[in-house]
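so my prof wants the structure for this chain in the tokens format not the other one, which i didnt know existed until like an hour ago. anyway here's the sequence
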Amino acid sequence: MTSNFLEIVEVSPRDGIQNEKTLLSTESKLHLISLAMDAGLRRLEVTSFVNPKRVQQMADAEEVAAGLPRNSDAKFIGLTLNKRGFDRAVAAGLDQANFVVVASETFNQKNQGVSTRESIAAFSAIQKKAPVGIDVGLTIGAAFGCPFEGEVPLSRLMQVVEACMVHDPFELALADTIGVASPRDVTERVGAIKRAYPDVPIRLHLHNTRNTGIANAWAGIEAGAKSLDASLGGVGGCPFAPRATGNIATEDLVYLLDRSGVKTNVSLDKAITAAEWLEKQLGKTVPGMVMKAGGFPRPEAA
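here's what i got, hopefully its the right format
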């Protein structure tokens, strides 16, 4: 059963560009954020507080945070993988921190350098000492499959979810980090979490690597997800997951929802304009489809 409103979380300033060879300047990132906000997006993942040697595109996290328009009603999110990253997000004055725990041990080690259990312990320590003014959410990476271990059984996912939910994140996100999920997988996993934790808001981070992203998004909405991540132009990828390409394109998702009677408060035309601008900055064709085709065509005059 779909709701008549869905929140889109814009992730192009972080997940969208983090794996791009073309390094965007701080000014360009801030302009991208401005274009996204002008389109009506009001929750944006703007940067990640990670080791700049490992993710060079995010080396200016503090500078981006310092340049954000704070006199708006937007919420700005920073990705964090450990206590040091979280402390940086707090010092930067962000509204929300998104902490990541990976469902598979191998990927957690490659992404964070520690075990899944150690990441959960770090999340627990952060939650206990999180200052007033910053909400801490949790993303479970590789929630549908792992590039190193293969299948992630539902039982394993639920073990990780249960261990994390003890520490009360304000929202729980499931990430299809390598884009392997099918609509059935999304329905099954969102449904399992909703039955176990009916009050936790569920957010989905879906990659379109195998062209199932939009179908998975709709399955997630029907299963009760409250928020969906998307990236202008469909850009994105994980530096530590082989062949983990493309997020759902924001403008493609807006078109789907507009035509389905689900409100987003996002302007399709302005989202397309922003995606076109980002494509020019990156100097390559980006995956988004609606930005190439346009919205629903108007009738031609006789």
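also thought this was worth mentioning. The mean pLDDT is 95.
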